[in-house]
């Protein structure tokens, strides 16, 4: 088979080409800093919900395979706990550990998985996406608040109760433009109705605009990401995110007896580069912001090689 026509190469090439074009546009300042936030809001508040709702509106709950949830998240949480224990119980450690387990499933993953494996694979990915932030970001929030509470006690200050923090994190992750349209779409599908054409067509057009714009925005963000002074720790985070997590998820999926397309989607999802939500945590807790930004950029750049290798490997495993 010609390498250029290999399914993995054929699906990865447009993804990284669009990211490269976004990087070029960012370096040329064609998309200025002030416009990036507005474009990000367009993607997250309009395009993503349209795509997610339309995709899940035809999926019946009884056909869903929930084993990927049971296999993926224990592996991710185990790596998170081990990473925190290895680095120490402090704000920087928790943010770095979160960077090593939180995948960019939406901005990169949705487009890549649909291109490489089709609509059936997208259902498996969206099953993971529906609780990905809910689980990992809630756990991350609680652990970070425990660290802050310990610091407050050591400083003689009053800290908020951990249950209050957990509930706040849970609500923030659930009432969000990613899980809400997934859940709404699933609920609509159970009615047995189908979307009328006057609704379905606009949703289709909005959803089709998501992939190119999201990938170009990833490239624009990379153009403004400095790596200086953070290369070594950023490499450790990247190794965890791009290589160790997919290995652990693959072993966990094998233990659950998951094979075929669901196994491939799970491992590829775990091998995706680091998601931008981790940087929001670094900002909120005022720690490791430069390192987190550098790790996100390095993880995305090196994914060109690590993700290609993982996807090629999965073609032989299955």
Automatic annotation (TrEMBL):
<feature type="transmembrane region" description="Helical">
    <location>
        <begin position="125"/>
        <end position="148"/>
    </location>
</feature>
<keyword id="KW-0812">Transmembrane</keyword>
<feature type="transmembrane region" description="Helical">
    <location>
        <begin position="93"/>
        <end position="113"/>
    </location>
</feature>
<keyword id="KW-0472">Membrane</keyword>
<feature type="transmembrane region" description="Helical">
    <location>
        <begin position="235"/>
        <end position="257"/>
    </location>
</feature>
<dbReference type="GO" id="GO:0016020">
    <property type="term" value="C:membrane"/>
</dbReference>
<protein>
    <submittedName>
        <fullName>Putative transporter YfdV</fullName>
    </submittedName>
</protein>
<keyword id="KW-1133">Transmembrane helix</keyword>
<feature type="transmembrane region" description="Helical">
    <location>
        <begin position="69"/>
        <end position="86"/>
    </location>
</feature>
<keyword id="KW-0813">Transport</keyword>
<feature type="transmembrane region" description="Helical">
    <location>
        <begin position="169"/>
        <end position="193"/>
    </location>
</feature>
<feature type="transmembrane region" description="Helical">
    <location>
        <begin position="294"/>
        <end position="317"/>
    </location>
</feature>
<feature type="transmembrane region" description="Helical">
    <location>
        <begin position="263"/>
        <end position="282"/>
    </location>
</feature>
<feature type="transmembrane region" description="Helical">
    <location>
        <begin position="205"/>
        <end position="223"/>
    </location>
</feature>
<dbReference type="InterPro" id="IPR004776">
    <property type="entry name" value="Mem_transp_PIN-like"/>
</dbReference>
<feature type="transmembrane region" description="Helical">
    <location>
        <begin position="6"/>
        <end position="26"/>
    </location>
</feature>
<dbReference type="Pfam" id="PF03547">
    <property type="entry name" value="Mem_trans"/>
</dbReference>
<feature type="transmembrane region" description="Helical">
    <location>
        <begin position="38"/>
        <end position="57"/>
    </location>
</feature>
<keyword id="KW-1003">Cell membrane</keyword>
<dbReference type="GO" id="GO:0055085">
    <property type="term" value="P:transmembrane transport"/>
</dbReference>
């Amino acid at each position: 088979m010609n390498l250029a026509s290999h399914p993995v190469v054929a699906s990865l090439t447009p993804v990284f080409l669009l990211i490269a074009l976004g990087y070029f546009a960012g370096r040329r300042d064609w998309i200025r800093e002030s416009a990036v936030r507005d474009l990000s809001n367009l993607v997250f508040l309009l395009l993503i919900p349209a795509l997610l709702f339309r995709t899940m509106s035809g999926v019946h709950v009884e056909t869903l395979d929930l084993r990927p949830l049971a296999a993926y998240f224990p592996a991710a949480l185990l790596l998170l706990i081990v990473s925190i224990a290895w680095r120490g119980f402090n704000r920087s450690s928790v943010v770095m550990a979160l960077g090593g387990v939180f995948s960019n499933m939406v901005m990169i993953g949705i487009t890549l998985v649909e291109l490489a494996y089709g609509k059936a694979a997208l259902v498996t990915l969206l099953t993971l996406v529906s609780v990905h932030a809910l689980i990992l970001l809630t756990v991350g929030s609680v652990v970070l608040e425990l660290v802050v509470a310990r610091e407050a006690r050591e400083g003689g200050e009053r800290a908020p109760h951990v249950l209050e923090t957990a509930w706040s994190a849970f609500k923030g992750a659930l009432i969000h433009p990613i899980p809400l349209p997934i859940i709404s779409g699933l609920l609509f599908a159970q009615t047995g109705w189908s979307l009328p054409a006057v609704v379905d067509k606009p949703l289709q057009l909005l959803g089709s605009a998501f992939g190119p714009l999201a990938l170009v925005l990833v490239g624009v963000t990379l153009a403004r990401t400095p790596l200086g002074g953070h290369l070594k720790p950023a490499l450790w985070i990247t190794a965890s995110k791009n290589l160790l997590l997919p290995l652990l998820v693959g072993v966990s999926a094998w233990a659950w007896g998951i094979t075929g397309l669901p196994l491939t989607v799970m491992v590829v999802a775990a091998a995706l580069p680091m998601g931008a939500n981790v940087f929001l945590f670094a900002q909120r807790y005022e720690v490791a912001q430069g390192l987190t930004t550098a790790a996100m950029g390095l993880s995305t750049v090196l994914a060109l090689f690590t993700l290609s290798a993982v996807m090629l490997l999965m073609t032989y495993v299955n």
